[in-house]
């Protein structure tokens, strides 16, 4: 639900979160992530205001779960230690501390404090396609040294191809002593394929979203992934029928549109742009009369990182000016 929050412009209701959490918990899903799409503290004018405060949503999810751990995402600087403590107080048991793939050093404080609070802690290296493998390994090692129990390769842009996933997970497997996770986006329609490669190379924590309810073209579609893994003979203790029912009956009706790969999400995978920029680029495109694809391509050229949503407005305004001048 945390990544899906982007798709609904952070307008989840308490009842929606309760129903999805209860369904996932009942199906046997071990972790359920709830918070603003941009993580704790993300409810701002810059990233989009939440309809219901994330602490209330976290509490609602915790109360709906019998076995699943409720997870939160925290991007240092957007969320602070204050929000982390509050989330733990409301029952969140796992935090994923997320940084751009080259900026792991800013996660030290949050990882340390989360461990002190008794939370399970993972590092989450975003835009993993945008740095050389050696850099990714170096940064993952930093997170390990701060106390992370797992580090994720996060394909924020849905830009990684299967061999690139293989290379990254393999290198981490050879260099780390902790678990490795993989977070896919389906902008190039390879989220499930990439996830299978990650598993093959030794990743043990895998993200998904029902009906692909995640930013851009969404994540690996959880119910599809579970069906595939089941057919591959892996028993991961999740009830496929129950999962399908939650996807169909609860998540489907929440979605503003079905998650097909449309031109906006495709261009993000192609240009290597943050999946959560899609809605912002579409809005800016309308406001300034510019094709959102041109905005996304330019934002990609400028190597924007998560948190730089304001750059989308700048780029749209500049492109509109150029268009007017006939450039
Ligand atoms: C803006 C945070 C982002 O949505 C985190 C994430 O899921 C990703 O980088 O893919
Ligand atoms: Mn994501």
**Molecular shape:** globular
CA-CA gap between termini: 42 Å
Strand content: 5-15%
**CATH topology call of the largest domain:** TIM Barrel
CATH homolog superfamily of the largest domain: Aldolase class I
The number of distinct β-strands equals 7
| CATH architecture assignment of the largest domain | Alpha-Beta Barrel
Largest sheet, in brief, is:
7 strands, parallel
Arrangement of strands in the largest sheet = 1-2-3-4-5-6-7
The helix/strand order is HHEHEHEHEHEHEHEHHHHHH
Q: Helix segment count?
A: 14
* Whole-number mean pLDDT: 97
Give every kind of bound small molecule, once each.
Answer: the ligand CC[C@H](O)CC(=O)C(=O)O, manganese (II) ion
Radius of gyration, whole Å: 19 Å
Enzyme class: lyase
Pfam family, one: HMGL-like
GO biological process, one term: L-leucine biosynthetic process
Keywords: Aromatic hydrocarbons catabolism, Lyase, Manganese, Metal-binding
Keywords:
TIM Barrel; Helicase, Ruva Protein, domain 3; single chain; manganese; alpha/beta; binds the ligand CC[C@H](O)CC(=O)C(=O)O; 2 domains; 7 strands; DmpG_comm; manganese ion binding; 11% strand; binds manganese (II) ion; 7-stranded parallel beta sheet; 4OH_2_O-val_aldolase; 327 residues
Can you describe what's shown?
With 327 residues, the chain is an alpha/beta fold. The chain folds into 2 domains: 4-254, TIM Barrel, CATH 3.20.20; 263-324, Helicase, Ruva Protein, domain 3 (Orthogonal Bundle). Helices cover 47% and strands 11% of the residues. The protein is built from 14 helices and 7 strands. The chain has helices spanning 4-7, 14-27, 54-64, 81-89, 108-116, 133-146, 162-175, 191-200, 222-231, 240-254, 263-271, 278-288, 292-301, 310-324, and strands at 31-33, 69-74, 94-100, 120-126, 150-154, 179-183, 205-206. The chain has a 7-stranded parallel beta sheet. Strand 3, helix 5 and strand 4 (120-126) form a beta-alpha-beta unit. Helix 2 runs parallel beside helix 3 (54-64), helix 6 (133-146) packs across helix 7 and helix 7 (162-175) packs parallel to helix 8 (191-200). The site of manganese (II) ion (MN) has 7 residues, from loops. Belongs to the 4-hydroxy-2-oxovalerate aldolase family.
């Amino acid at each position: 639900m945390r990544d899906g929050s982007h798709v609904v412009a952070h307008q989840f209701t308490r009842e929606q979160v309760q129903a999805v959490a209860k369904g996932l918990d009942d199906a046997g899903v071990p972790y359920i992530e709830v918070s603003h799409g941009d993580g704790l503290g993300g409810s701002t004018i810059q990233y989009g205001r939440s309809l219901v405060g994330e602490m209330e949503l976290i509490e609602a999810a915790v109360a709906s779960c019998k076995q699943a751990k409720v997870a939160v995402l925290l991007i240092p600087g957007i969320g602070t230690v204050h929000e982390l403590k509050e989330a733990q107080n409301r029952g969140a048991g796992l935090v994923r501390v997320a940084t751009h793939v080259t900026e792991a050093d800013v996660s030290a404080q949050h990882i340390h404090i989360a461990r002190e609070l008794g939370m399970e802690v993972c590092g989450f290296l975003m835009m993993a396609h945008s740095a050389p493998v050696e850099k990714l390994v170096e940064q993952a090692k930093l997170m390990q040294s701060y106390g992370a129990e797992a580090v994720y390769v996060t394909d924020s842009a849905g830009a990684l191809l299967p061999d690139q996933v293989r290379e990254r997970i393999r290198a981490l497997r050879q260099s780390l002593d902790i678990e490795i996770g993989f977070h896919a986006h389906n902008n190039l329609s390879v989220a499930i394929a990439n996830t299978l490669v990650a598993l093959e190379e030794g990743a043990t924590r895998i993200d998904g979203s029902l009906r692909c309810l995640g930013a851009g073209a969404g994540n690996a579609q959880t119910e599809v992934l579970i069906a595939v893994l089941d057919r591959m003979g892996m028993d991961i203790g999740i009830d496929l029928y129950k999962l399908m029912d939650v996807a169909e009956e609860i998540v489907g009706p929440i979605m503003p549109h079905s998650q097909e790969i449309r031109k906006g999400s495709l261009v993000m995978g192609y240009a290597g742009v943050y999946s959560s920029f899609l809605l912002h680029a579409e809005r800016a495109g309308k406001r300034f009369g510019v094709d959102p694809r041109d905005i996304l391509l330019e934002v990609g050229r400028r190597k924007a990182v998560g948190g730089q949503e304001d750059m989308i407005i700048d780029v749209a305004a500049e492109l509109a000016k150029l268009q007017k001048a006939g450039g």
